[in-house]
Write a structure and sequence with these properties.
Layout (H helix, E strand, L loop, with lengths): L14 E6 L20 E5 L2 E9 L8 E7 L9 E5 L6 E2 L12 E8 L7 E11 L5 E13 L8 E2 L4 H8 L6 H8 L14 H7 L8 H10 L8 E2 L22 H14 L7 E6 L7 H14 L4 E5 L12 E4 L6 H8 L12 E8 L33 E21 L6 E7 L6 E3 L1 E7 L7 E22 L9 E6 L15 E4 L12 H14 L3 E3 L17 E4 L2 E4 L1 H22 L2 H6 L4 H8 L6 H29 L1
Parallel strand pairs: 2-9, 10-23, 11-12, 12-13, 13-14, 14-22, 22-23
Antiparallel strand pairs: 1-3, 3-7, 4-8, 5-6, 5-7, 8-9, 15-16, 16-20, 16-21, 17-18, 17-20, 19-20, 24-25
Length: about 650
């Protein structure tokens, strides 16, 4: 994770430093600001830990070095795995028998697993470096095991599809030969995300769609369910057009071939209780005019098999509310309000649209950048403006919303990040968009119940309702530096009647968004994605294809590469796994800690907000953010350990 150790090097000996898992240590690199000189590892039961050890020669003719692990007498953990980061940083390989060539920087990964039955306490060991012409050097390691267990089944569903066509082309392994597929997946075990062990093309090409033909599929699930977490199971494989592989029945024909495929499929899932995890992807086209086909596919899925969860890739809207069970949406197109509505089982049909024409954010002397109408403002969403940049001084700001037609304004709802709420807000309205007059507003601020806990809602009621074509907010930041941080602006969001009650519909964060978070671009952004899910209220993660090719928008290497017949996870996936384990710490602490302990451990409001709410942070902030993450994790682990000792 962010688990660091370094020893001091002599002038003649190679330099050795250690980087956390979220730093990419490339050949020839110097130590990053995150490198340390201590040996302190922290882990819960059932947790994986990764740390990078960098070695660089400091003379012209470096000698090779052999590396081995030596446990101390008190060491009862399994021995760590030692792997060498291959050139390019996309895969790992075994340590060379001839020793590490230090003519360039070599990055050695130490991967540690703490078993679920492990007793809490401190364990020590050492890495020994054997030189041909010098004495062996020892790098001591101290591991603190918490009295806290990471659940085997991840609390946060995460799904990364596989490009199985590439696997078939490279390996030529028949789908029925389950034993030959095990080595393909074994390096991905313990990564805390699900992936498709098959896809529809596999089944259609090799198997008849009936119960007997689905036995190999069931064998795949039985073989890998204890190794790979299966919080979700993709029925039709990646792509979103699985239903279209089965043409709809002709007019007057009752039997649907899609039903004949799905029913025995799901019947095979009943005994292991996997049915509730099954879903089928439906991907919306870019053009709203082409959504009729998506609607038909979603409706058809529900008609032929009600046990299938339909996952729709699009910003949630009231029109599609009855055509999907789960949503996946890019973070840049989310809305705190509808996210909270869906998570709490409230219908989006009662959200009144805000017919915006234009949004202008203007400072006293210049235009504020980054303010524009969101793409997802449509017939079902009320958001108008998100993520305004923080001001650099305490000057007032002006935000003007222009409407497409005359609107009657009675109530105004503003959502602020808690550490960026302003001192006060003045409201002005205009009928012609030019002349503005002041409106008396009664404000009522509170931390919202349905929206994530670091969001403060300010509700304003106009003393005299106004009909207007524009409204202007003059925002007076607080005295403290940093400006304000406005999350949402909504006018009369809720209709007069109460929101309709519907089944809660989880919204997943789609990591294929090329803007943010860019999972394939940075280990830091890979690590922080689960934090964002906890902070903003996402119910799951949909990642990019594990072994797919890079795209023009994300010109990074695949997340997993095929090496010696196995899928090898790279640095990015290990950083993501660390973030998923962070999530387990944070979620468990939120559920079990007493309120008086929140301030003691400075969690979750201030630190969680600082860690999860950002947009392209500067590099000099990254290390501070990750150090805060390490401290929070360590404090939570010790809190559980102390609590368990107190109970005894």
């Amino acid at each position: 994770m962010h688990l660091l150790f370094v020893i001091c090097a002599t002038l003649a000996a190679p330099e050795i430093w250690v980087e956390p898992s979220w730093v990419v240590a490339q050949p020839g690199a110097e130590p990053s600001p995150a490198a340390t000189k201590t040996v302190n590892l922290y882990a819960a039961r059932g947790e994986y830990e990764s740390v990078q050890i960098c070695l660089a020669a400091r003379k012209d003719a470096p000698e090779p070095v052999q590396v081995s692990w030596k446990p101390a007498r008190d060491y009862t953990l399994p021995p760590p795995e030692l792997r060498l980061l291959a050139p390019g940083g996309t895969r790992f390989e075994a340590l060379p028998e001839a020793g590490l060539d230090l003519s360039q920087v070599q990055t050695l990964w130490l991967n540690l697993y703490v078993p679920l039955f492990q007793s809490p306490g401190t364990h020590t060991g050492a890495l020994e470096l054997h030189f041909a012409k010098r004495k062996t050097r020892s790098l001591p390691v101290r591991i603190e095991v918490f009295d806290f267990e990471i659940p085997t089944m991840p609390s946060l569903p995460a799904y990364f599809p596989l490009n199985r066509q590439a696997l078939r082309n490279a390996l030529a392994i028949p789908f029925e030969e389950v034993e030959r597929w095990k080595p393909v997946y074994e390096r991905l075990t313990g990564m805390r995300f699900a992936f498709n062990l098959w896809d529809t093309v596999d089944l259609l090409a090799a198997l008849p769609p009936h119960a007997e033909g689905l036995k190999p599929l069931h064998a795949h699930l039985e073989a890998f369910a204890d190794q790979i977490p299966l919080p979700v199971i993709d029925l039709l494989g990646p792509g979103g057009d699985g239903a279209r592989l089965f043409p709809p029945p002709l007019p007057g024909v009752v039997h649907d071939p899609l039903q004949g495929f799905l029913r025995p499929f799901l019947n095979a899932m009943v005994a292991p209780a996997w049915v509730d995890r099954c879903f089928a992807e439906v991907e919306a086209p870019e053009s709203p005019l082409a959504w009729q086909e998506t609607r038909s596919a979603a409706f058809r899925l529900q008609r032929v098999e009600e046990r299938v969860h339909r996952l729709l890739y699009a910003p949630p809207n009231a029109e599609f509310e009855r055509y999907t069970d789960w949503w996946a949406c890019e973070h840049g197109r989310t809305n705190y309000y509808w996210l909270a509505q869906l998570n709490h089982g409230q219908s989006l049909e009662h959200v009144v649209p805000l017919p915006l024409y234009r949004v202008n954010g203007v400072e006293r002397h210049s235009t504020m950048p980054g303010s524009e109408v969101e793409l997802c403002v449509d017939s079902s969403l009320a958001t108008a403006w998100t993520e305004a940049p923080q001001g650099t001084d305490s000057g007032d700001r002006a935000l003007t919303l222009e409407f497409k037609s005359v609107q009657r304004i009675e109530n105004l709802n503003l959502f602020w990040h808690e550490d960026g709420a302003p001192a006060s807000v003045e409201v002005f309205t205009s009928f012609n968009g030019v002349d503005f007059s002041s409106s008396t507003v009664t404000w009522n601020s509170r931390t919202t119940v349905n929206v994530p806990d670091f969001i403060v809602q300010t509700t304003g009621t106009l003393r005299y309702p106004r009909e207007a074509t524009a409204i202007r907010l003059i925002i007076h930041p607080a005295i403290a530096p940093g400006g304000f941080r406005l999350a949402e602006v909504c006018l009369d969001m809720i209709a007069s009647d109460s929101p309709g009650e519907v089944k809660a519909k989880p919204v997943w964060m789609d990591l294929r968004d090329p803007r943010y978070p860019r999972l394939a671009a940075s280990p830091f952004e890979a690590r922080i994605a689960p934090w964002m899910c906890l902070a903003f209220g996402y119910g799951g993660i949909r990642g990019p294809v594990l072994n797919g090719a890079a795209t023009p928008e994300v010109p990074a290497a695949p997340l997993a590469v095929l090496h010696e017949g196995r899928l090898e996870p790279g640095v990015l996936l290990r950083a993501f796994r660390d973030g998923m384990e962070d999530y387990e710490y944070l979620e468990a602490f939120r559920k079990s800690a007493r309120p008086e302990n929140l301030s003691k451990y400075r969690f979750p409001k201030v630190d969680l907000n600082y860690l999860a709410d950002f947009d392209r942070p500067a590099k000099d902030r990254i290390f501070d953010i990750m150090q805060r993450s390490a401290n929070i994790r360590r404090d939570i682990g010790r809190y559980f350990t102390q609590s368990a000792a107190h109970k005894e």
